[in-house]
Amino acid sequence: MDAGAGGSVLNKSGSERSEDGGGIFEYFGWVYHLGVNSIGHEYCHLRFLFIRGKYVYMYKRDPSNNPAIKPIRQGVVGPTLMVEELGRRKVNNGDLYVLRFYNRLDETKKGEIACASAGEARGWIEAFDQAKQQAENELSRGVSARDKLNIEAEINLEGHRPRVRRYAHGLRKLIRIGQGPETLLRQSKVAVRPDGFEGDSGDAVEAQQWKCVLAMAGIRIFEDISDHKNGSVLAKSVGVIDATADTVFEVILSTEQQKRYEWDTLMCDLELVDSYDGHYDVVYGTYDSKYLSRWHSKQDFVFSRQWFRGQDGTYTILQFPAIHKKKPRRSGYRRAKVNPSSWEIRNLTTSVASNSPRCVVTHTLEIHSASWCQWKNNRSSKFERSIPYALLCQVAGLKEYIAANPPLHHENATTIVHSKISDASISSTEYEDEMQDEFYDAITADSSTSDEESDDDEKLVLQEPRVKLKNISWAITTLALKRTAAPDLSEELDPHVTPIRIPSDLHGSLHKGKDDNDTNCWTSPSGKGFMIRGKNYLKDSSKVVGGDPLLRLVAVDWFTVDKAVDRIALHPKCLVQTQAGKKLPFILVINLQVPAKPNYSLVLYYAADRPINNNSLLDKFVNGSDTFRDSRFKLIPSIVEGYWMVKRAVGTKACLLGKAVTCKYFRQDNFFEIDVDIGSSSVARSVIGLVLGYVTCLVVDLAILIEAKEEAELPEYILGTVRLNRLKLESAVTFPV
Fold it and tell me: What InterPro entries does the annotation carry (predicted)?
């Protein structure tokens, strides 16, 4: 694998296709298998991973070039499989993007693979999600009990698999895309993908009002004219770049000096100081201010970077000024404070005929209002020779740099061999007996004790500063807001039952706010601040302003706990177990488990005035399978008031919580509880850590929905909302034992 100090990165070659004959999803390519062997040594093996439907195979070599080869790992992707993006990790001086697989019901079953780029990691996440959906579809179609048992059954991975070998023999005509490991060791190339996403900016209505004040070099510079507080103003530069968001993200994060010299006039001499949890690092930099003003001395600076990728593929990078004990001020330099700033990189949807990916890059930063206003009033002022101006111009530098480097915005050359495997492939029932192991079980088997896993003749020698790959004869060497459209909610709750009056004296540990000026409280806003799917969403992707929630928020609990607590509704002192609670037709309990020191639980109680109507979408969600719930449980966040960097971190895009974090569901009597483990995702932990640091000055709105995916379910409706007004961490009460 790549570990070279010279910056060479070993890429995975991958392909995705769906057979016309059987509609079976396939994805395959090179990855790194990470782990620790029985004697405690870490290993990193280059492996060829192949997904076919819900089945996953891991090979030491490309099976299309080695028909007789057997898989060394194999398993099925079941409904309980979770894929977590762990971010970047240093492996022998090479940066890899790590994915963790685990069973949400048993996190001791886990394993890791890694990719050379963020785009490849995203591709594998989507591939495993597709495989998981196929497994879920088979279960929903009512497959045999024997098939269902295969999802959890374990087998001896060292046994012979003649049917799998016969299947591997048929792979020789599969599509090959990209370069193999031997070529990639010699070259440093960034793999790009032309995937596009819808260009909507979010699912909540933002209060900021942006005005374009300057257009230059293919970018536009905006000012937020809605409010100027604390002597600062928000400005942003926006440009369209002919590359994928994955590519631009990696260029921005790279600290390689020669590359940054080509586009960054300010932060080109950077040094990585420290890295934490794959989504956070600290960087030290220097610059000679003679490029801005000949009267200034040389300066150095330290800043932190925090990044995450949304479910729609949008990257967010937050940059804060920082202090680090390893990097005191250098002698002869003046310590500068870098302006707080953020990057947002969002893919644009391109036409089917177009082969060129595009993305919108937005760089937002906080500027002292005096210098900004002086520049606006007098364009010949010194602002154009200032640090904020240089930061705003980084987007223009990126745009020109990528335009001048075709490998960054064009796909790698491909060799495509049309396949007829669908005619000769065997059905899943022919080899399902050989594939009973869950995928995370397969990839966590101890590689040091298995002859199958050893790298005798193709060992990757991990040495510094170069990587040597012995005997790679098997490698591939050539290759605008809509009007409100209120949904008909009469079918969600039983129309034949007379609505009851929900008691007003229900309460939790957090009090209900009296007005907007009240603090450390909750209220229930209308849905007008949220954008949800309209009646014609499947045709034109149109969204409409949300209406009133279906359920009424009746109480909120704010607890401190030693460790995450599930099934809070069963506690005898819980609101659900009171006499008033038992008389309610239906209660939805949302238990948001917040990781911190100490841990917190924010428990929301939503009540209905009538029972749930049979066969409604709400009924399918409450009484359906966990698989269905994971695919539909949606939350839209919005920071109504608060620090702008926190707003950027949280965003306003809807999130399918069941796919982002571990959710546990519990249905009993007249209630339905959802326990949301925010700490199960490293990205979510990172964001919530930032939010808790500013929580006392934040006004946060949340909307709970069941995502509509079929025409009969549209338009969407909001299940419930909550506004949390400047919470105080110390006000949380200890959970009763």
Answer: EDR2-like, EDR2_C, START-like_dom_sf, START_lipid-bd_dom
